[in-house]
Amino acid sequence: MFPPEALKQAKDFIAVLRQHPDLLHTPELSFLKDYLVSMGANIPKEGKKDTEKMFESSSEEEEEASPVEEEAPESEESELEFDTTGVVPPESTELPPMGDDSVEVTEEMADKASEKRSEAQAKFSDGDFEAAANLYTEAIVANPQLSMCYAKRAACYVKLQRPKAAIRDCDKAISMNPDSALAYKWRGFANKLLGNWESAYMDLQTSLKLDYTDDANAAIKELEPNVSVRWLCLLLC
């Protein structure tokens, strides 16, 4: 259930945006602007610096009202609650080996990579994610040109709660195949593990556009309250 106080602040936030739409062009709210555009919204072009005027006016009023420096009030963000269920710290373990892109893949190497990938898929299905990750590593070393292996190894690392390794693998997969829905999905899950809710939300949205999956859609719904609270804090805190 969305907190009543957060709903009130959301309404206040929308009211501010109606008066000062240029706020959507600020770097802090770029994720919100991108989301609105993806939903078909028509964002007005950036005009005069209304936001600067607003803050200058606010600053002048504060100076007149309170010439004596006072202790800053407690941040609004502390009053808003984020759901941190499932958030983990970045792992301190060594990152896994990556393939050498300069290697010329022979037929024998390609066959070995295919064999290891099949074994890895079987281990993943059995829930042995550590063994699956190791087998995907062997496949990657044998044939570094398989973007799918990076994305699927990332899935193993998400299951093992190693989000840093997962994100690195997804970045590699996306650099090789920008339309890899799997890579965006698992990078979204990895960012969710780290509490990077806006990044997770955008990655999962991208994955859904490329290829719908129920688990990505469910994760989006879980992220929506935290994303909403976060962008409220960016403006109101």
UniProtKB/TrEMBL annotation:
Residues 45-102 are annotated as: Disordered. InterPro entries: Hip_N, TPR-like_helical_dom_sf, TPR_rpt. CDD domains: Hip_N. Residues 45-55 have a biased composition (Basic and acidic residues). It comes from the Eukaryota. SMART domains: TPR. It holds the Pfam family HipN. Residues 6-44 form the Hsp70-interacting protein N-terminal domain. One of its GO terms (molecular function) is protein dimerization activity. One HIP oligomer binds the ATPase domains of at least two HSC70 molecules dependent on activation of the HSC70 ATPase by HSP40. Stabilizes the ADP state of HSC70 that has a high affinity for substrate protein. Through its own chaperone activity, it may contribute to the interaction of HSC70 with various target proteins. PANTHER family: HSC70-INTERACTING PROTEIN. Homotetramer. Interacts with Hsc70 as well as DNAJ homologs and Hsp90. This is Hsp70-interacting protein N-terminal domain-containing protein. It comes from Dibothriocephalus latus.
